[in-house]
Write a structure and sequence with these properties.
By secondary structure, this protein is mainly β. It has one helix and 17 strands. The strands form four sheets. The protein has a six-stranded antiparallel beta sheet with strand order 2-7-6-5-8-9, with no helix packed on it. Strands 1-17-16-12-14 form a five-stranded mixed beta sheet.
């Protein structure tokens, strides 16, 4: 079961039957499960309705920042499963400014054109993690882009950070442990070919521990998949009696 809970969005879950580690094929999506949501007191909030391809959605309840939800699922041939998450508050918008640019100087990502930004996080004081992604779109448009572009930071609070050390990625992850309830400013380089006709749009996410560990372990699993020289990687799960994750996340789009 997988469920990512967000503020002002219907409660949703994907329910499937997992395959064994030695089995071939993908998990089997279930269309006849019973799925429902409960509040922190165990009171049923709503029954999630099947909408196709293993996805179930609440017709009456949307997520609320700061609230905890338990998603439960039952199927006639499988044990009942459940997971719990609290939705973080939508992150505040700090100062994000372009401070430098490089037009490129040859082959290799170290010579690709980039823009450098000063990126401020205004923390709300609740323990958690931030994920920063960068996107590009036509300047002046209102399109919400789909595909993140490459970025990196030299912030010492980010594991493996450093400019010019092949540490570029499509996401920057940082814990708020060392700036809880305070502001934190970091430098971010965004690698972008067309700096004239396009504009950068940042997506700042505040996520819970389950989201952080699930995304990190999923990245490691995908990077190791098919590589005979890597150790097997287990993907994080907080679903009781089964596999998967129930997680809380919120986000804000920021146009520098």
């Amino acid at each position: 079961m997988y469920s990512s809970l967000e503020p002002d969005a219907p409660l949703e879950a994907f329910v499937s039957r997992s395959v064994g580690i030695l089995d071939q094929g993908e998990p089997i999506l279930l269309e006849n499960a019973k799925v429902w949501a409960e509040d922190s007191n165990g009171q049923v909030l709503d029954t999630l309705v099947f909408i196709g391809f293993g996805q179930y959605r609440s017709p009456n309840v949307t997520g609320e920042a700061g609230q905890s939800y338990t998603i439960k699922a039952m199927h006639s041939t499988l044990p009942s499963v459940f997971g719990q998450a609290t939705i973080p508050a939508i992150p505040a918008e700090g100062a994000v400014d372009s401070v430098n640019a490089f037009n490129g100087g040859g082959p290799g990502i170290g010579n690709l054109p980039y823009k450098e930004y000063s990126f401020e996080i205004l923390d709300d004081g609740d323990p958690g993690y931030y994920m920063i992604e960068a996107y590009e779109r036509l300047r002046g448009s209102v399109t919400i882009p789909e595909y993140p572009i490459t970025l990196e930071t030299d912030d010492p609070l980010v594991t493996g950070s450093g400019f010019g050390q092949n540490n570029w990625d499509e996401r920057i992850d940082i814990s708020n442990e060392f700036f809880l309830g305070q502001s934190h400013t970091m430098k971010i380089r965004v690698y972008q070919w067309d700096q004239l006709g396009m504009e950068i749009l940042f997506k700042l996410k505040k996520v819970d521990e389950a989201t952080f560990f699930y995304e990190r372990s999923l990245d490691q699993y995908q990077n190791a998949n098919g590589n005979p020289f890597t150790q097997p990687v287990s993907v994080y799960s907080n679903v009781q009696n089964g596999l998967g994750v129930v997680a809380g996340t919120s986000y804000r789009w920021i146009l520098p």
